Amino acid sequence: MRPFTYTRAKDATSASKLLTGNPNAKFLAGGTNLLDLMKEDVERPSTLIDISELGLSDIKTISSGTNKGGISIGGLGKNTDAANHPLIRQNYPLLTQAILAGASGQIRNMATNGGNLLQRTRCPYFYEVAMPCNKREPGTGCGAKEGINRMHAIFGWSEKCVAVYPSDMAIALAALDAVVNVRNASGQERSISMADFHRLPGDQPEKDTILTHGELITSIELPRNNFADKSYYVKVRDRASYAFALVSVAAALETSGNKIVQARIAMGGVAHKPWRALKAEQLLVGKEATEANFKLAASAEMADAKPLEHNAFKVELGNRSIVLALQMAMNGGKA
Amino acid sequence: MKEKDKVVGTPISRIDGIAKVTGKAPYSMDHPVKNPAYAILFKSTIAAGTIQDINTAAAEKAPGVLAVITHKNVLKLNVKGGLRGGALLQSPEVDFFGQNIGIVVAETFEQARYASRLVSVTYDKKEPKVNFDKVADQARLPKDKEKADAERGDAKAALSQATIKVEEVYETPIEHHHPLEPHAAIAEWDGDKVTLYSSAQIVNGAQSAAAATLNLKPEQVRIVSPYIGGGFGSKGGQWANLALTAVAAKQVNRPVKLALTRQQMVNSVGMRQHNRQKISLAATADGKLTALAHEIVTHCAINDEFVEPCGDCSKIMYETPNSLITYRVVPMNLILPTYTRGPGKSTGSFALESAMDELAYKLKMDPIELRIKNEPERDPSNGKPWSSRTTVQCLREGAKAFGWDKRKPEPRQNSQGNYWIGYGVSAGTYPAHQRPTSALVKLKRTGDNVTATVELAAADLGTGTYTILTQTAADALGLSIQQINMKIGDSDLPPAAGAVGSVGAASYANAVNDACQKITDELVAKSGKQFFARPTAAQLMRSEKLTEYQTRVDSKAPESAEEYSAHSFNANFAEVAVNKSTGMIRVNRFLAVTGAGQILNPKTARSQIIGGNVWGIGMALTEESVVDPRWGNFVTRSFADYHVPSNLDIGNLDAIFINEKDEHVNSLGVKGIGEVGIVAVAAAVANAVFNATGKRVRDLPITPDKVL
Ligand SMILES: Cc1cc2nc3c(=O)[nH]c(=O)nc-3n(C[C@H](O)[C@H](O)[C@H](O)COP(=O)(O)OP(=O)(O)OC[C@H]3O[C@@H](n4cnc5c(N)ncnc54)[C@H](O)[C@@H]3O)c2cc1C
Question: Name one Pfam family in it (chain B) (predicted).
Answer without folding.
Answer: MoCoBD_2
